[in-house]
Amino acid sequence: MSIIDAHIHYGDDDPLLLALLAEFDLSLFNICVVVEAPDSDVQAPWRDQAETYQALAQAHPQRFAWCTSFDLPRFDDPTYMDQAIAGLQRDFQAGALACKIWKNIGMDVKKPNGEFLMVDDALFDPIFECLITSGKPLLTHIAEPLACWQPLTEDNPHYGYYSKNPQWHMYGRTDFPSHEQLMAARDHVLEKHPKLRMIGAHLGSLEWDVDVVAARLERYPNFAVDISARLTDLVVQDSAKVREFFLKYQDRILFGTDVVMRQKPSTLNATDKAAAIEALRATYQSHFAYFETDQSLVIRGRTTRGLGLPPSVLEKFYRTNAQAWYPGL
Predict the structure, then answer these.
(1) What is the average per-residue pLDDT within 56-84?
(2) How confident is the prediction for the chain on average, in pLDDT?
(3) What is the domain range of residue 242?
(4) Strand, coil or helix: 191
(5) What is the per-residue pLDDT for 184?
(6) For the chain, how many structural domains are there in total?
(7) Residue pair 182/205 in contact by the 8 Å Cβ criterion
(8) Residue-level pLDDT at 154
(9) Which DSSP helix (H) or strand (E) runs through 315?
(10) CB neighbours of 122 closer than 8 A, spacing ≥ 6?
């Protein structure tokens, strides 16, 4: 069965990687992430990602595709929006299949008046309308997992991340928007732009309960989710309930891992390269075991039972949903 990892950041085509992709009949949809705003006369750092991902898609169209983004706002630049839209249009002409907006919108970037810039701000409306006109979807990573606003305990699926990235842990931080405010802003975009097709990364940041995800899918027919970086959140929930969620919303859930390439395998020595490829292999194998088998499994130290999804649902989850929500993939 052909598989599309619809959310990954892996910019290399080392022969060992290509061999692994061929082994699993796997294609990668690389996602650009805009972390910081550039000076007005300097190319944004994230463009390096875009150029790498575009080159991979051109060199290996059967294995790679890519999702672009746009520069963070330059509030003192009256040409900002025109440049952002022109950049999107150039990237779409160069093969980009979607646009990503990241969690720094709502949680980091502030307007000149000191307020956090939220994703439903009118500033972004022309970009969203450009996506609608261009027939391109929006991939959103808005907010963090709910654990971000909860006490940091070792039994939480996200303990590892927040213990290493305390700058994103918002427990007790009343000077930042709440999870509810961020989700309301994301939902408001769907309401303001009903023709915009949106994929909510990481189970739409509603990862703690598939019933909550289901409620959003029911409310917004132009909304889908991917499961990237949220396998453990599924594992800790009741397997029967999660399985029913996948069966009921089998057209609205996309496979993805959110694996981030820390260093190109092609730049590593033979030992480190083999270890990097084997780590990637193990990531996919653990995902496949959970979704494909109904056996008792230990995934990331937690015991669960696999979902045992039927082949018809797996085909949608692994491949055809990504093709439907990212036209051209």
Answers:
(1) 96
(2) 95
(3) 3-325
(4) helix
(5) 98
(6) 1
(7) yes
(8) 87
(9) helix 311-315
(10) none
